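Quick one:
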Amino acid sequence: MLIEKLILENYRIFTKREFNFRKGLNLVLGNNSTGKTTILESIFFLFSGELVNNFSPINHNQDFARIFLKLIFNDIFFEISAILKRKNSRFDKTLMLNEKKIESYKILKNKFLSPFLLNAFDISFQDPENKRNIIDRFLKIINPEFSNIEYNLKKVIKQKTSILKSGNYSDIIESLNSKIAELSSLITLKRIEGIKSIGDDLNNACRKFWHNIENIKIIYTPGFNLPINLTNEKNIQQNDLKEQYLNAIKINTKKEVENQKVLVSSNRDNFEFILITKQKEYFIKNIFSQSQINIFILLFFLNLVRQIKKVYNYYPILLLDEPFVFLDSLNTEKILKILYTYPQVIISSNKDLELINHKIFL
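Output:
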C-alpha cells in the first residue's frame, strides 16, 4: 500500500495544499510551526479517526476542512476523503471512499492497514502515556477490536468520574468498578502480549548497536501498581489481572472519593526496559543518553512494525515525526539504512537528510 497524493484544505494551518509522495523514503522538511507534524497526523487521522492532540483540525477562520488522499493497493487506485464541518465546539465528519459515502471507520480498517505513527513526543519514552500510545497504536492495527475495548473503558471511567464528582454514590458504582477491572485487565493483557511478542527481535536489534548487551528485561507495571517481570512470567491470565484490579480499586476507594477521580485502571499502566550486561543490570532511563534512548525507541517501534508484517504479510505505511531529533549524523544514517527496507516511510524533520531523495519543502 502506497500513498501517492494528499490534499489538505482548511486543515489547521493549511488553506489548500497538495503533497505528492513516492515509494521508499519521503522527507517533509521545514522549520517549526510550518505544518510538518500536521501532514503526518492528518494521514493518521484519515485512517484511524483519532486526533493525536486536542487541537481542532479545522482552521479557526473556516467552517469546514477536507482531507483527500490517493493511494495504490494491490495495483488498484483508491481515493479516500474526509469532510469535517464545524458544529459548536466539535465537528461532524463525512467519510468517502472512491466518491461514495461510507458510514464508519470500520469499513476503512477492514480494507486498508492503518499507517503506523511515531509521534515526536514518543521519542523521549519517559512519560508512561507516550509508551502506552506506541503499543496501543500497534494493537489497534493488529486487532481492530482493541479500539472498542479502549473506547468502552473511557466511557465507564467517565461515568464513574461523574458519580465521584456528584457525591451521589449508589450501587451502580460497584458495577462500574467491575467493568473497569474487566476492561483494564483485558487491555493490560493485550499490551503485555504485544510487548512480549517482540522480545527476542528487540534483543537482536539492540545488540547491533550496543555489543555489550546480553539481554533486555521488561518490567510491566499495570494500573494496580504491582510490577510483573515479563522475562520470567510465562503465563499471565486475565482473571488474575482482574482480581488484582478489583483489590486495588477497593484499597483506593477512599482516595478516589477524596480526589473525585478514578485512580486505578489500565490508563495508568507503565513499562520499563532493563539492560542486562555481564557486569550489571541497568534501567534504560537511568543509564542511556537521550540519543541512545532515541535509537532504542526507534528499534522498539520498528520491531512492532515487523510483527504487523507477520500478521498481515505486508508492511504498514510508516509515519515518523521528528525521529532523529537527538541523533548525530552517523546514527541517523544507520537508522535510515534500516528504513530503506520498508515500502513507504514519511518522515518529518527540520533538518535536511541527504540520504533521502524525495523531499517536500514547507
